[in-house]
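Why do we care about 3D structure at all? Because function follows from shape, and shape follows, mostly, from sequence. That is the central idea of this module. The next example makes it concrete: a single protein chain, its amino acid sequence, and then its structure expressed as tokens.
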Amino acid sequence: MKKWSLVKPRLKHYSVFSLHSQSFHRILTRVVDVNTREIPALLWSFAYFFCVLAAYYIVRPVRDEMGVLAGIHKLPGFFFMVFLTMLAVVPLFGWAASRLTIRRLLPTIYGFFVLNLVGFFIALQAGSNLTTLAPVFFVWVSVFNLFVVSVFWSFMADIFSTDGARRLFGFISAGGSLGAISGPLFTAIAVKGLGVTSLLLVSSALLLMAVVCIFALLVWYRTCHGEDLGAKHLASSASSDSPASLWVGLVRIAHSRYLQAICVYLVCYSILSTFLYSQQTILIPQVVPDSEDRLRLFASFDLVVNTLTICIQLFVTGRLLPSLGVTVMLMAMPILNFVGFGVFGILTILPVLLGFGILRRAGEFSIAKPARETLFTVVPRVEKYQAKNVIDTVVHRGGDVTGTWVGSALHNLGLSISQMSFVALPIVLVWLLTGRFLGRRHEKYQV
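And the structure:
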């Protein structure tokens, strides 16, 4: 019977398994608008994104546990190191991407992260504890999260045409969503039996599998298009990551009230996120004293958040955004936070913290972020990319640092977790008013 190779029939040595072409093609085309030639690239891309996000979400609970072990007093330093590292690494990546071909750049990036994970594994096996590694690992996971996703989508933009991206990126994103669910699920189940150190090796193995997917996609592209994509540079590796571009972006923001309002909106979100993270760092160790139990709790938390996010994205976001409009969507998260911080201030218990945190993160990924990205549709293209680069790095991470400083300072002043929640409410009001302003200005620009 005729078989289907994941790359192409005459490239059988790249196949992981074979599929009955007609029946599988029939099923797949019911789910996604894909032609026969694109099927191998679609499946490899799906697997690539699955591996990347599963690898990240396996180690993310370990990072959260390290934050708890370090304590609230060290969190500002951790986030400040993340901020400085981002400022240094983003231009460095732009420099490397403009000089290394795709065939060298992508395996180098993922290979670097694999070596890091193996290094952490060796350090833990040699007797280092989580508290000792906490500063380095906390910063590393934050940088890892930035690059594995951004590099993936940059590569996808080169692999697929505009039409292919429109038809296939939704299905490919589902691979990432499946990985975002599988990663924390694996950690929650396996941490008791495998331990923290083995989780690092599982994550590194997934990254190596992602490299296999990259090479398979390069072979597919050369076979189908007759040119060697691996010998080119990433299309998005241009000057947008350079220090000069960051400065130009700051100038763009300084001359636009609209962009300034977007910055205020994002800073409010970032401050409140790390503010709540600081409260979590205080409360959770009091209720859950065992380290492995906390790891399972953090993994279960990520699992629920990612599952709820996917459900909202599939069944709610696409209907709400067109019907309710950007203004209501932008104000939804501040309203949720006002209620959440208010209730948590009255009932300072773990179930309220977890419930609020789940709704908050799921709402950010599925409602607030799509609405926030919509704001850039009325901004000129050049201005959008230059300013957005600054907003996604300097502004976002700067807000994170500010939030941890505020949380730590209030804790040092002797405020309880309950009192800290009420301090957050004025920031929520600024966030709400900014969302209302942005929504109305966006509607005005659309006319």
